[in-house]
Specification:
Chain lengths: 322, 536
């Protein structure tokens, strides 16, 4: 097991390095010059001033030197300094990361739990009315554009009914601490997390339903029936445990997209997460922030991949013991 | 005579609308007696498995008992609620299945799966259940039962898994055991051991056994009584010895006649010039091997030497894992070899590249085992057959016309425009043969080409292969686990064990006078060979 983890860690480090270099190259190939944007905002397009800015940020150096500087700093955990926000990039990201993780992990759990439960019910009632109702509802959430669904949810639950706050991470200018603050954040979280979760639920419903039906046909299910086991025990212990394997695969792929997938929702709900940080950085050509966000989300994808592989080894002894 | 424990009276099992016939089982009656084995014999679709499932109350959805009685002691099982039936299953009637590989839940430890039987009926405490599981595994003869109990199914071999399934079935000492083709998927030596085990346990516990099989060899080995079924009806029944030695119904006679006899079917053909020469071929599979993992090696084929004469049929026999299929795949270069040469004329199949390889491929063709998965379901069979010639430059129209002619030759005229799912297993295997012949090969490698077929269909396909072989002067490499089939059609036979050739010679020599102990153990294990000898 230790060997497995070590091997994977080395691979992850190498992949992360490759991704960082690739991103660095891509961004430098893209049109737009941060010095120009900054000079423009300062109201001074004097070539001398622009040259000074370039020299100050090291942008006058050859590309390969810039790359080396970035990568060698990156290796020590330093993601650079934001020209625009006058703050270290890592601080900026760490500031925003918890909000994004909170939102996307909540949405992930909601979609997974609701999806699997609904899928199991649909499979058990195959061909009956409840089966088609579940499939239709799931498809409806999936087919509706995410931002539109978010807006409608705000209209209904915040504006009309007044149950939920319409935007933000917590009540502005409040001095809540401790449990009150946690409850306040949770209250703000419900709407965006549920909307995002319902959107992703459909795939879990479908794959769980199909997988349950497939496992139901396998021989060992008949063996279990021949033992005289109750149908509920058979479904839970024999069918669901086997049917969950493809769901784990899908959930792993999905977990990787969580950080990027929340951008739209973060925008609609003014959620102070990484998605919005990235969007702002893109508009202002804030290279270092952009690169930092890319690197962190790549690292998260790799981490979730590792977690998926672990989960697989736990649920499937065939992989564990090979 | 003792009273029967199970009486099945005029049982009728209705199939859902749109099936090929209204009743899967039509007014069948038979009894199961304590301490006796009843073999129910028939080909696929005869209704033998359906009657077993009815007895277990495990009929598939849409299929139901429409008339008749299934009496277990004093109780009629027809019309019992799910819950009442569940109470009987496992406790009074138990079942073992055909596929030991898929009959166990891959994610649960063996001990937990056995313990479940007690749990289902609310017996024993959890710790006692596991202890009992180990005792049961000891009883069915698993080596190191304590370790097997902690194992997952994939860590056991097919025969071991079947022992586990048997242990599970015996856990609550049922009065009736239903065995649905329990040895069909096993190697011949393993099959002999499992049959022996079932026989012993059944006598010890005075169980009634309903044993379903398609194999009269197995019947000869273990049956007390026989019931022969055809298309849902019982056509013949009686004591095993009578039915086997003096079958009355033409269908029974046909089934028995179709079994290849275990003696060389013909004298070896006179030696002709060598067509193909295999020199020191080896193949090793390597798996695993990552950054920190060692490589695992399996020597699938070890230093095989063989000459194949023009028009000769060579049988390659061995159990699963003996390397016979790997060797066959090397012959047609579906797989690269690590060492050695395979010469066809002066060309080496193992080294050929590009155009030379393409031309060689036309000369050596293959017929595969599974008639269901070896044809592309979305391509019309005519096109499947024509594909090879088209790839080799034959104009499409001509290739399609030749495909039609080939289909006619294998007994399927006008089949070219249809899709694979419209054909039965035997018909698909004929299509497979036509496909292999399309490139006018000199050598055909047939890998278990008839193992998936019913015995009467198997006989027809073997006959067709033999005819075509003579007509086209083909050499045939026939890979099989079934020594009876090999004995019937092969001029020479090569016996493989763990990748090595342990014996090679004319069929008469290998079967009548085997020199290697492994060959002897294979022949010894063939079910019904004594009955065979009497008939001869």
């Amino acid at each position: 097991m230790l060997r497995f983890i070590l091997g994977r860690m080395v691979k992850i480090a190498l992949i992360l390095l490759a991704i960082t270099i690739l991103n660095f190259c891509l961004i430098h190939m893209a049109p737009g010059d941060p010095a120009l944007v900054m000079a423009g905002e300062a109201g001074d397009a004097d070539p001398k001033f622009i040259e000074d800015l370039r020299a100050q940020f090291g942008l006058d150096k050859p590309f390969i030197v810039q790359l080396w500087t970035y990568v060698s700093h990156f290796a020590t955990g330093d993601l650079g300094f934001s020209y625009r926000q006058q703050m270290p990039v890592s601080e900026l990201i760490l500031d925003r990361l918890p909000a994004t993780l909170l939102l996307s992990i909540s949405a992930f759990v909601i979609s997974l739990v609701l999806g699997v439960v609904a899928g199991v019910i649909a499979a058990a009632r195959q061909g009956k009315a409840s089966d088609s109702i579940i499939s239709t509802i799931a498809l409806l959430f999936y087919a509706t554009p995410l931002f539109w669904m978010a807006l409608m949810a705000v209209l209904l639950f915040s504006v009309q009914l007044g149950w939920m706050p319409a935007f933000g991470y917590e009540t502005a200018a409040s001095d809540f601490t401790g449990l009150t603050r946690i409850l306040d954040i949770a209250h703000h979280l419900i709407l965006p997390a549920v909307v995002l979760g319902l959107f992703f639920m459909a795939t879990y419903v479908r794959i769980t339903r199909a997988s349950m039906l497939e496992v139901n046909r396998l021989d060992f299910v008949k063996t279990a029936r021949a033992k005289g086991l109750k149908p509920s025990v058979i479904q839970r212990r024999h069918v669901l445990r086997n049917a969950i394997l493809p769901v784990v695969t899908l959930a792993g792929l999905h977990a990787g997209q969580l950080v990027g997938g929340a951008v739209l929702i973060e925008t609609v709900f003014a959620w102070p997460g990484i998605g919005r940080l990235m969007f702002e950085a893109l508009q202002s050509r804030d290279y270092n922030v952009l690169l930092g966000v890319f690197t962190v989300s790549a690292a998260l994808v790799l981490m979730f991949n590792l977690i998926t592989d672990f989960t697989y080894r736990i649920v499937d002894p065939r992989i564990r013991l090979k | 005579m003792t009273d029967p424990i199970v009486r099945i009276e005029k049982l009728k099992i209705a199939l859902p609308e749109g099936a090929d016939r209204p009743y899967a089982v039509d007014r069948c009656s038979f009894d199961l007696f304590p301490g006796k084995i009843l073999c129910v014999v028939g080909e696929s679709g005869s209704g033998k498995s359906m009657s077993a499932n009815a007895l277990m109350g495990l009929l598939p959805e849409g299929v139901h008992v429409s008339d008749g009685r299934i009496r277990l002691g004093e109780r009629d099982l027809v019309g019992l609620t799910d819950e009442e039936m569940r109470d009987l299953r496992g406790r009074r009637v138990a079942m073992i299945f055909q596929e030991p590989l898929s009959a166990l839940n891959p994610l649960m430890r063996i001990e937990d799966q056995i313990a479940e039987v007690f749990e289902a009926h609310g017996l024993l405490k959890p710790a006692e259940r596991k202890k009992r599981a180990v005792e049961l595994l000891t009883e069915v003869g698993l080596p190191d039962p304590a370790r097997a109990a902690r194992a997952y199914p994939h860590q056991l071999s097919g025969g071991q898994r079947q022992r586990v399934v048997i242990a599970m079935a015996l856990a609550l000492e049922p009065e009736v055991l239903v065995a649905d083709e329990p040895t069909t998927a096993l190697d011949v030596t393993t099959q002999a051991q499992i049959l022996e085990l079932i026989r012993t346990l059944q006598v010890e516990r005075n169980m009634a056994v309903m044993f379903i099989t398609h194999d009269f060899g197995v019947v000869a080995e273990i049956a007390d009584h026989v019931t022969v079924m055809q298309l849902g009806k019982i056509v013949e029944e009686g004591p095993a010895a009578t039915v086997l030695s003096n079958p009355q119904h033409p269908y029974t006679r046909k089934l028995i006649d179709a079994i290849p006899k275990l003696r060389a079917g013909r004298a070896a053909a006179p030696a002709r010039e060598t067509l193909m020469e295999v020199k020191g071929v080896s193949k090793t599979y390597r798996s695993g091997g990552g950054l920190f993992r060692p490589v695992r090696e399996v020597h699938a084929v070890k230093d095989i030497n063989l000459t194949i004469g023009r028009g000769e049929t060579i049988g390659i026999v061995g159990e699963s894992g003996s390397g016979k299929s790997s060797f066959g795949r090397c012959l047609v270069r579906l797989q690269d070899t690590d060492q050695g040469q395979i010469l066809l004329g002066d060309q080496d199949i193992t080294k050929a590249q590009g155009k030379e390889l393409q031309e060689l491929r036309a000369k050596v063709q293959m017929i595969f085992q599974d008639p269901y998965s070896s044809l592309n379901p979305r391509i019309r069979v005519g096109r499947t057959i024509a594909d090879g010639p088209i790839a080799h430059g034959t104009p499409v129209d001509q290739a399609m016309a030749e495909a039609d002619a080939l289909l006619e030759r294998v007994g399927l005229p006008g089949a070219g425009k249809r899709y694979p799912h419209e054909f039965s297993g035997g018909q698909r295997q004929r299509i497979g043969i036509a496909r292999a012949l399309a490139l006018k090969p000199q050598v055909i490698v047939a890998d278990e080409a008839v193992s998936a077929l019913d015995v009467s269909i198997q006989a027809q396909v073997l006959e067709l292969l033999d005819e075509l072989k003579r007509e086209l002067d083909l050499s045939l490499v026939f890979i099989t686990h079934d020594l009876r089939v090999a004995a019937q059609i092969c001029d020479r036979v090569m016996v493989m064990q763990k990748g090595e050739c342990v014996e090679i010679g004319p069929g008469s020599q290998v079967f009548d006078n085997p020199s290697h102990p492994y060959t002897r153990s294979l022949i010894e294990a063939i079910p019904g060979k004594d009955w065979d000898a009497e008939a001869a």
